[in-house]
Design brief:
The protein folds into 2 domains: 138 residues, 3-Layer(aba) Sandwich (Rossmann fold); 109 residues, Nitrogenase molybdenum iron protein domain (Rossmann fold), CATH 3.40.50. 41% of the residues lie in helices and 12% in strands. It has 14 helices and 11 strands. Helix 3 links the parallel strand 2 and strand 3. It is globular. The protein starts with 18 loop residues before the first helix and ends in a 13-residue tail after the last helix.
């Protein structure tokens, strides 16, 4: 695995940048990055729910409570909004959700999970969580007699497909789950054939301020699947402006709120990368929208291939959710 030099060993390329320009850009990046932090899950205790064909089927749930963005999309995609009682607050935010209009039709929303009581009082018959939901609280919900279905947090496209299939079986929607997976794989096949002869660009993805998505992220899987090379060949972390300029990626992908700041700064004149923006919902959804995310990454990394031939031109695609 390639190891990056420490920031201290990197010669500073900032001789052409003014101090006010650096401070302004750094402040904008930092503020956008604060909201990206997530608490570390208890991986040694969390066990995703796995249903096999031999599992005795339970009755289909009628009042589903979903506590994560991924589970929101999967539940709404598999059963629609009529059987979903509550979703996470992020699902109603267009910056994170590509199904926010549908999510806003659900009767209740759940914010930060700090107590089991509000969830129990909603009266759901199935609660769907992932490993970043509060482990102790989800255990209390289960001890109150409510079934808890645990998704794995997706770091690979195979994780997304496993979640779709397992939850589809539990919700009595296995056929629809298989169709979602087939659509993702067909999209992947078309795109790979289209860009088989394209070069492999070096990519840095800042998903929030200075926070860069590394090899432990779902975004890295999308970048690699789309034929790119992630310049951060280590776990996701905050990076410095010096590192970004030293790596000098071919493509820098940022959140939309940062695009105008970068383009207006002296930083932009020094960096040779093509800069593209995209929301979390567009670039790293751990849901059945993975096919559209793959397409978005392919278009970002290989725009010249789509200028010659667009395999999706004129086709109707139902990707939400």
């Amino acid at each position: 695995m390639t190891r990056l030099p420490s920031p201290a060993s990197i010669p500073s390329p900032f001789c052409t940048l003014t101090r006010p320009a650096l401070l302004s850009l750094a402040a904008g990046l930092f503020l956008l990055g604060i909201v990206n932090a997530r608490s570390v899950p208890l991986l040694d205790q969390y066990e995703p729910t796995v249903l096999s064909f031999d599992t005795v089927p339970l009755p289909p749930p009628r009042r589903i409570i979903s506590l994560s963005l991924e589970s929101d999309a999967l539940c709404l995609g598999l059963v629609g909004d009529t059987a979903v009682l509550a979703v996470s607050s992020l699902s109603r935010d267009s910056n994170y959700s590509n199904f926010y209009e549908l999510a806003r039709r659900v009767p209740h929303q759940v914010g930060r999970l700090e107590s089991a009581e509000p969830i129990v009082l909603l009266g759901g018959d199935l609660v769907v969580v992932n490993e970043f939901n509060n482990f102790a609280v989800t255990n209390l919900i289960e001890s109150a007699g409510i079934e808890v279905f645990r998704l794995r947090f997706p770091r690979h496209i195979s994780d997304i497909e496993a979640n779709i299939l397992n939850l589809g079986r539990r919700l009595h929607r296995a056929g629809k789950a298989h169709r979602f997976i087939a659509r993702i794989e067909e999209t992947r096949r078309r795109l790979k054939n289209l860009t088989a002869d394209s070069p492999s660009p070096r990519v840095l993805y800042l998903s929030g301020g200075f926070w860069a998505e590394g090899i432990d992220s779902l975004a890295n899987e999308f970048i690699t699947a789309a034929g790119g090379q992630n310049v951060l060949q280590e776990p996701s972390r905050f990076v410095s402006l010096e590192e970004i300029l030293f790596w000098n990626p071919d493509v820098l992908v940022v959140r939309p709120g940062l695009l105008s700041t970068v383009n207006a700064s002296s930083f932009r004149k020094t960096l040779k990368a093509r800069i593209v923006s995209g929301t979390w919902a567009e670039l790293q959804p751990g849901t059945q929208a993975a096919g559209r995310a793959l397409e978005r990454w392919f278009r970002i990394l290989h725009p010249e291939a789509f200028e010659k031939r667009d395999p999706f031109a004129g086709t109707a695609r139902d990707h939400l959710p």
